[in-house]
Amino acid sequence: MGLRSSDMMSLTLSLALVSVVGAKESFNTTVFVPENARVGTVVAHHNTSLQLPRTYRLLDGNAYGRFGIAESQGVVEVANPLDYQIQSTYQLQILIDNGRNFTENTIVWNLTVHLLDVSRYPPYYNKTCETPETSSGIGLTRLVEFTDFFVHLSATIGYTFKDSSDIVNYKKRKVYFSFEDDSCEVNFTIGVSHDKDVAYMNYLMKADYRRLTQYSEDGKNKLSLFVVLQDYYALLDAGRIDPTWITGFNTYRYFILVSLGTLKTGTPVAFKRSVANFMAPSPYGESNLTAQITFKLAGCPHGKYGAYCDKNCTCKNDARCHGFNGACLCAPGWKGVSCDIPTPAVAIDVRPEGNMYITGNVSLQCRPVHINASSMTWWFRASRNNSSKVFIQTSRNFSISPILPETNGVYTCEATTSDGQTLERNYVLDVMECPSGLHGERCDRPCDCLHNVGCDRWAGCICEAGWTGPTCNMSCPSGTFGTNCKKLCRCENGAECNPFNGTCICPPDLTGEYCEGKQSSPFHTTHDTLQYFTLLLFILPVVIVAVVVRRRRKFLKEQRQQPVHEELQLVEVNQELNMADTLVPWERDPQYLTLGNLVGVGTFGHVVEGTLELPGELPVRVAVKTVNAKDNSGYVQADFNREMDILIYLYDRSLHMKEDEKVMHPNIIQLYGVVTLSDPKRIILEFAPHGDLQMYLKRLRDDINAVNWATLLGFAVGVSKALQELERVTIVHRDVAARNVVITDGMVAKLADFGLARDVYTNTAYEHTDHHGRDELLPLKWMALESIRDGIYSCQSDVWSFGVMLWEIASLGEEPRYPGPFRPNCCQMVNMLRQGKRMEKPEQCSIDLYRLMCQCWYDAPDHRPTAAQLEVRLGDLVEDANNRVPANDVVVFEWETTL
User: Fold this and answer.
1) How many CB atoms lie within 10 A of CB 410?
2) Under a CB-based contact definition with an 8 Å cutoff, are residues 674 and 583 in contact?
3) Which of 539, 598, 836, 892 has its CA 20 to 30 A from that of 830?
């Protein structure tokens, strides 16, 4: 056959069947070729014992020119990239001539080529880490850039070392990148050979500092570093080193394996680590170290990909080439590995291509590709409601001028051919920003901001600390300071307060941080002290009695008005007083806990998967919530402790039994233990293999027709049962939302509080607010009117939040959106809710389900359904869900509004 072994191709030839048909001979050959065979790979070779000149021609079966044949040699090769999904078998017909003429003594070679499906081929184009194209520059080009690299070491002996050079010095170190393109993960291995580097590695190995884990400053990436002592073949098998490194066994003494996690397009990832009072190698001794580095996807020049942008892309016809693996993103009208196979399609060209703003213009051009369109029609569907498509016009071009909030939506170009075939393409217009210098819902109000501050579409001028007013033209009123002048000064004795940072400016006769003390003369000290002591003897008993009476009256009044909320506070206080005794049965030794993959992470803590294996018991898969030991924020520790207390309290008050043992309510997350006697503090919880409800809903969006609404409403039934249990033991959850519901084994929905309550979640869900003198992050869009306005929480405020969770389910995990600002503050939310404004019905939501949501959002808490009523109503909806047809009726509700 004469095949090249380097092609690594599996090839099988069948028995040649020779026949005589008139004056022509024919024979058949069958071969098997992997679909990832490179261009130039030999597929088959016609051998003959006769030394006669021959000519070969491909007559038929070579769709889209996938194969080629040398005219005089009889060698069939791969001419263009193959793809099993597009065509798995080729029937090639090749005419062989003896050199005299093609009418006599010709031979027909019937070559059947079967493609073999290859795993993970073609390469996947992942838009999460889509790499930009860069201009060809001078010097070494890398797909991933290392920037802001800095190391600062200071030792007690007085030595200081600073290095801000590139981490990759090619005279000292070699670097090999490996990419997980399906998940956008970036890993690289550093080969250490320089004497100075080797000395550092020796010290790290002896001091058992071989592993390092560091979270990025935004908490979304984890850098893992592992030092390995010469393990060439194991690293080669794992794809972590360059195969050429194997030739120099003694070149590299150590390898540093680095994992960066997922890198996203246009999002640099910064890491910073400070270590105080650690023992550095001799002679430095006790030292302090600070190191930082930033990684970002820099991209490759056009037509290149790979870690060093040294590989050639095969993408054609204006396709984009992915920098990780060379995968091609085809333009409309093209398909195949290299986007070189035409296919009928419709494209939409958009002008302008850059940023668009409200009050601006946009032009859309419908362009048929590889089809003859007899007509082209434009349709529109608004994005803010559940309306059907609306006819716009029949034409190729369509312009929107001006762009307004109501013009946002889905624009569809529908092309029809003369034979009745219809193709369409969608374009989503979602313009949310105002042009520079304008704000307002329709961007029709000038900003006129002073001090060069920014201007928000909804809020207007974003004043710097110390300034307020529509254009930031006024300093903070007396007694206030900070951003938006929301913070109250604590200066005493009439002292002035700095409007920018709240620093008290004391007059000459006052002293102290808050100017609370007077500068006293030594001649008056004894006299003043005697006066104050005498006055205190008379006033103190009166003050004590007054405080006791006032607190007693306030306690009785609040007990009558808010029994559930007050009992919750008493539970928390009692738990704090008896924490040590309460935690004893739940305390777990960390040595029985094995930690695994990261599940979620936030600024002050994270959740990882783990295994708990207590002596004499079977191992249990668990989720481990951890608060950072270095975080000293009072409210973070308080939230963490409160969650431990409430989970233990729920277990103690539970009425549920399983095999003669008490268990948690079946719709509340199970507690397995806590770690409080050592740092870091941990809560060990039941593991939820299906994740939280919010992420579960988002995964369903890819195939809306496959959504099982009965299952989703069944999750809501489970949460309603959990709320009944909380009501029974007089506890208020205060954060009922899809993100706080987990789906465990058996597809059971359980109420939880993953993510350290108000800390882990992004600011789209939680907003800063100063509640009762304490700066908190609150889930405003999920909160009841009375909770935002008055700070009152009850079981009925949980019902309001439950209604928002139903909206999340009906919208498949969309973020709740009220009419008006996308991220309203407290005042804006209160005003909207008092005016009767509520969220609109999601597109796939039934009228009955939306009506139930709206009842959860009544102003008066007593008018909202109870958790038990919700279970009954939802049970009825579950029975009807499979037969439900989504309704697009217009429903008008009259809100109960308290002005």
Assistant:
1) 15
2) yes
3) 892
